[in-house]
Amino acid sequence: MTRTEMAKEAYMTDLTVIEPATEQVLAVLARTTGSEVESAVEAAQQAQYAWSRTSPSSKAAVLRAIADLVEERAEDLALVEARNVGMPLNDARAVVSSVAETFRYYAAGPERLTGQTIPVAGGVNMTFHEPIGVVALITPWNYPMSIASWKIAPALAAGNAVLLKPAELTPLSSIELQRIAVEAGLPEGLFSVLVGPGSTIGTQLVEHPCIGKIAFTGSTSVGVGIAARAAQTMKRTTLELGGKSASIVFADSDLRAAAEGLAGGVFGNAGQDCCARSRVFVERFAVDEFLGYLRETVAGLQVGDPLNPATQMGPLISQKQLDAVRAVVDSSPVAFQGNVPQGPGYWFPPTVLYPIDDAHPAATEEIFGPVVCILPFETEEEVIKRTNDSVYGLSGSVWTRDGARALRVARAVESGTLSINSYTSVRVSTPFGGFKQSGIGRELGPDALETYTEVKNVYYNTQE
Ligand code: NAD
Predict the structure, then answer these.
(1) Which end of the chain is less packed: N or C, by CB atoms within 10 Å?
(2) What is the separation of C-alpha 58 from the centre of its chain, rounded to a whole number of angstroms?
(3) 67: exposed, middle or buried (C-beta count within 10 Å: 0-12, 13-18, 19+)?
């Protein structure tokens, strides 16, 4: 379908948003039509022209105002995210706080986008970071609000307009965020949310000649297609894709902490996390002790109503996801599982697979569910090789009390984000992204700002 045909097509059907913990309808939204996408692109172009001429300090003030308003509405936003994603309320509160932090961090951006002066024969060259123009942001369903903010904040700070297409399953917090941004003083048209499928709206954005960049987070398979189609109009792309991250647990580490941390490191957001450490390599003679601690962790994990403050793990996002996770586990060796509530909701128990071979699909493919493979190893050299034997390279952890080994292994692992004696992957002020098929480019941290700009080089002739 061509862009014009899409623009003519009215995507008439409503979008029904389901609450995964209850299977009840949470909202019914009108899908954005093809012609509404065209109008949003035009409005974005106009708004961007004025925004790019707005002073750095005024841009910064608006971004700070968004952060303030996000904090003011924190509880409402957390409730929306918890109900729509099925994320425990406490985790959703942390997400909202990180969203405010992201806007505040990039509020410093407009005044930090400095260029260089380069002396050359007959004059001087100056470099400028110019905005790209209109940028389309395409986000997944697992952490919709935080991932959107990682893109919106630096893109706006760099002087662009943004069109955000959230995943169909979880559009609600993106819509709230857009309302907040306008209320905080962001000019109309500079940030629009387009609700609907990737196959229609997403394609329209990726192929649109007036859009200069696609910032995408999602699966590797969809990312590959987007990169190919975006290349047709030479769009810039940032791609944050799938993962199959590993934890490497040496016998000299705090084994209990490594096992207890897996409550967040692989069961967090019910495993629907691109950084989930779903392969855990454990030094062979520590496996029994580690499994003992992990059994306690799994048994103690509070799985249930995301709105209950005691809950640590909620449901999966959909019946489709539940079926997919179940299919993997049904053909895998299950060592032990936790509990799940009865009744409606897409529940799947935290699950430990052991003993299991490195080549088993559960140990090679991204599962996106609360499932972890325990893989014994003998030597440092061997475990590095086995860890790197993956098409992915997003995240990972090293657990040991030997500092030199920790750093040696972290340097050798082919991943964009590593943590030592911790499962933390993401901080607003540090770069995040993948090696290999986990993506191209980095988000967050100071350098992400420049990925929303073009470098312009101007020669100034100073000869008399
Ligand atoms: P997905 O790839 O199915 O969809 C992501 C987004 O792309 C959605 O908004 C979807 O509507 C849109 N889309 C789908 N087809 C499209 C097309 N042809 N053209 C344009 N847009 C299209 O991913 P998902 O199922 O929503 O999310 C799960 C995946 O996201 C996992 O693989 C996970 O690892 C990955 N992920 C990666 C990161 C990261 O930062 N690396 C973070 C979160 C999730």
Answers:
(1) C
(2) 28
(3) buried
| CA-based R_g, the chain, Å | 23
Alpha-carbon distance of 373 to 191, in angstroms, equals: 42
Residue type, 460: Y
The 10s digit of each residue's pLDDT in 383-430 is: 999 999 999 999 999 999 999 999 999 999 999 999 999 999 899 999
Question: pTM above the 0.85 mark?
Answer: yes
Check whether 360 has a pLDDT greater than 50.
yes
Triad 405, 411, 413: Cα angle to 5°: 100
The Cα 389–Cα 368 span in angstroms is 19
Position 433 in a domain = no
Distance CA 222, CA 94 (A): 28
Does ligand 1 have an atom closer than 6 angstroms to the CB of 204? no
193 CB near ligand 1 (under 6 Å): no
Shared domain check, 324 and 273: yes
| 432 occurs within a structural domain | no
Nearest CA to ligand 1 atom 23: 218
Q: pLDDT value at position 450?
A: 96
CATH of the domain at 444: 3.40.605.10
* Residue 151, φ and ψ in degrees, nearest 5: -100, -45
Q: Whole domain around residue 58: which residue ranges?
A: 3-241+438-460
Contact 409, 398 (CB under 8 A): yes
CA distances from 69 to 79, 96, 171, 182, 188 (A): 16, 11, 19, 11, 17
Catalytic, out of 36, 81, 176, 274:
274
Task: Report how many domains make up the chain.
Answer: 2
371 φ, ψ (degrees, to nearest 5): -130, 130
Q: Are residues 269 and 297 in the same domain?
A: yes
Q: Is the domain of 159 the same as that of 194?
A: yes
Please report the atom of ligand 1 found closest to the CA of residue 222: 2
Q: Do 222 and 296 reside in the same domain of the chain?
A: no
Residue from 84, 102, 142 to probe ligand 1 pocket by mutation (most atoms less than 8 Å from CB): 142
Q: Closest Cα partner for 26 from 16, 35, 36?
A: 16
Q: 47-65 burial by CB neighbour count: b if 16+ within 10 A, else e?
A: bbeebeebeeeebbebbbb
Active site residue 275: no
Pairing of strands 371-377, 279-283: parallel
